[in-house]
Amino acid sequence: MRKLLMIGASALVLAACGSTAAKSSATTTTTKKTTTPSAAPVAMTEAQAAKVYTAAIGPMNSALTALGKQANGWTNSTPTSTVTAALAPVNSALTKGENELNALAVKYPKAATALHNLTTAASSMDGVLNSVTSANVFSLSSWVTQLEQAASVTNNDANIVRSELGLPPTSQD
Length: 173
What we know:
- By secondary structure, this protein is an all-alpha fold.
- The chain contains five helices and no strands.
C-alpha cells in the first residue's frame, strides 16, 4: 500500500511546480468605482489574476505535498482512520482553493472556462482521493490508476489556466 499511495500522492501536485512569477504586462486596466451595489465582476489585469491564482493553489499544493510525505510512511496495516485524518486538511484546502478559483473566474472572465475546468478536475481528483478509504488491497492498483488519470487531467487544465494568466507551464518533475 505504501508504494501505491506514494505513487498516487506524488501525482497530485496541482501545477504549481513551475515558476510562479507572473508575466509582466505593460497593460493597465482602470476600473470605475460606483456607489451603488452591483453584481458586475470586478475587472482584473492578467498579472493580478495570476497572483490570485498562485495564492489560491499554494495551500492546495502544500496540503497535497504534506499528504504525500505522510503516505510515504504508510503500510498495508495503516488504519483507515489515519488515512482519513490525513485527508481532512487536503479536503479543506481543495475546497477552499476551488472556491477561490471560482471567484477568480468571475473577476477574470478571460480565463473563466479554463478555471471552471480546473476546479471540476480538482473536485474529481478530491473524490478519487477520498475513495481510498474504501479501497482494498485488490483495488488499490485501480485506485492509483484513477488518481493518476485525475491528476493528469488536473495538471493539463492547470497548464491551460497558467497559459491564460501568462504563467509558464508547470514542470512535471
